[in-house]
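Morning F.,

Quick status update on the modeling queue. The single chain you submitted on Monday has been processed. Sequence for confirmation:
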Amino acid sequence: MKGALLVAGTTSDAGKSVVTAGICRWLARQGVRVAPFKAQNMSLNSFVTADGAEIGRAQATQAAACGIEPTADMNPVLLKPGSDRRSQVVVLGRAIADVDAMEYGAFKARLRAVAVESLERLRAEYDVVICEGAGSPAEINLRAGDIANMGLAQAARLPVIVVGDIDRGGVFASLYGTVALLDAADQALIAGFLINKFRGAPELLAPGLDMLHGLTGRETYGVLPWLDGLWLDVEDSLALDNRPAQPYRPHSLRVAVVRLPRISNFTDIDALASEPGIVVRFVRSAAELEDADLVIIPGSRATVSDLGWVRETGIAQAVQERAAAGRPVLGICGGYQMLARTIHDDIESRKGHIDGLGLLPATVRFTAEKTLARPVGTAYGHRVAAYEIHHGVVTVDTATPSRPFLDGCRSGSVWGTTWHGALENDAFRQAFLADVAATAGRPFTPAPGISFAEFRAARLDALGDLIEQHVDTGAILDLIENGPPRDLPLIHPGGAR
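Structure tokens below.
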């Protein structure tokens, strides 16, 4: 078979990424050569491909669902917000500019061509390409410059299914309204709907689904039930707000992750979920650190700005007091930079010289050239494969006593590294956690035989199962091969057809 499909959504975090991954996984299990694609992604969770290109983490996970290596063509345009108004623009894996929303408009024509060319290359190499939209196609204020939703669908003549999150409420209104706000040419490509995150008996939805069909002339191809644990490798920090807080248990190893305003690559923490006896919380206050055995300061797209927030909230003082008391702290990438003595930044924040938290004997200098790499090293006697994405270059002061830790260092109970993904290495992760537990004085022993790769594969299989069991897969195959049904009715705002 040959073809493509665009999975759009009524909102951000409606489930586009997981539905796309699920369709990819299901097709791959049928022996189809399939690849994922997202023309434009806005995310602070990114990944480095084997040839050193930076793409959205969600597309790397979708590639894993397909059983293939990720490439820059799978996410040709990546926007990484550094503030509420400015984002770094990454094109085919390389940062080219830092712009505000108005300045970005000047790039749109060029980027649309880049996106279409990337999709064409993928379609030439693979039998099927499952595309993921961005935000909502009904963001009509942005339609003229759209390259990720209906702009892409028009350029590549893609059939579109729209995913609605029923857990948010108002799913029928949002599905209907998404179609009704589009012009006739765009509506002609909207083939139908999927409802996501349903809790209860699907029969209860039948009257609404019938009315939606009557109003739009479009089918609902499936109702996906709520399934816990599908937050793996999400692309949007909004998903953290929907992740339930786990209660600390008496014999668990308790991990508190600082929820920075511009938190990036928080997927580094996902591997901890594969370990029985580990409880992870994302926290925003100093008080929430008190009963944690390990505090992690994760990556940040705005290191200096987020360091200011860490100080304002009192978290900085709490972390310094923990370190003085010999209680474990881990900094990853931006978090590592915050733990250094000094930061010199004329690139990201342009604030010049800034004092760090002073917990590691290191200095940081930001450079214009971004480091993108897939390093391999050894720690605790085990091989560690990871990836790097950073402008800040950390130099460890060798005159001050410290111990090596991956590419960074350890001083007392404080560890720091720029390497993302290190915790996904099972033997290293368990040795590190055992050291943390011993340092914290906790009676915790990692369970043997845990494989994060198998944990992730099981999650991807669960997504494939969702599609296979709850979606009209025959109709999806027909859309992929033949495009949207002909003569779909035009919906006018107000309900007239």
